[in-house]
Amino acid sequence: MTRRTILTGGAALAGAAMSPPFTAAAVEKETSPSRNVVVRLTVNGHMRELELDPRTTILDALREDLKLTGTKKGCDQGQCGACTVHIEGERVLSCLTLAVAAQGLRIDTIEGLSPTEGPLHPMQQAFIDQDAFQCGYCTPGQIMSAVACVREGHADTDADIREYMSGNLCRCGAYPNIVAAIKQARPHLDKT
Ligand code: FES
Ligand code: FES
Fold it and tell me: Which of 80, 82, 131, 190 could form a disulfide with 72 if both were Cys (CB 3.0 to 4.6 A apart)?
């Protein structure tokens, strides 16, 4: 197999020929749509009823069906933290959690962190004050994770903050400012 084969997609066909589980029929079966189900989600205090493929993640339900695009899709495989939301107050990677599994549970997203007409949440304000973002793509996930980090009691020292925020990646490298923001907001948040 050459690099050219890989780059032009020939690698997938070559793999399929060598490996029966990856035949076109198997792939089609694996990816064919399944029957939709009714899913009731409580998002930011509002009950929402959706018809979803049972394989839909919370992330896709939020972004594609509810148009709540504040929660970001970075890697879609549990590695970057951009998709962090709270379920029952605990931080969760929404790209790894099925929407059907969250029925009856409280989901909070970045859109629900502060009232539409009103002051920002202390963590949001601290990110602004401390210049804790550049492009901003990771920021909703950082903020949701930071709020949970303080609530968990994992933000007492700089080392703790770095450790317990290590699941949230920032390609712009705003890490020192993120630590500063969490320290600014820390006294204003309740621990659970
Ligand atoms: S999009 Fe969920 S962890 Fe990266
Ligand atoms: S601010 Fe750009 S990825 Fe974090």
Answer: 82
pLDDT one-digit tens code per residue, 80-123: 999 999 999 999 999 999 999 999 999 999 999 999 888 999 99
Q: Which residues contact 138 (CB under 8 A, 6 or more apart)?
A: 72, 74, 80, 81, 82, 168, 169, 170, 171, 172
For residue 49, the cross-strand partners are 40
Protein residues whose CB sits closer than 6 Å to any atom of ligand 2: 133-139, 170-172, 174
Q: What is the pTM of this model?
A: 0.83
Between 122-129 and 175-185, two packed helices, what is the crossing angle to 10 degrees? 140
Q: Alpha-carbon distance 55 to 99, whole Å?
A: 8
Q: In degrees rounded to 5, what are phi and psi of residue 165? A: -105, 10
Distance, CA 140 to ligand 2 centroid (Å)?
A: 10
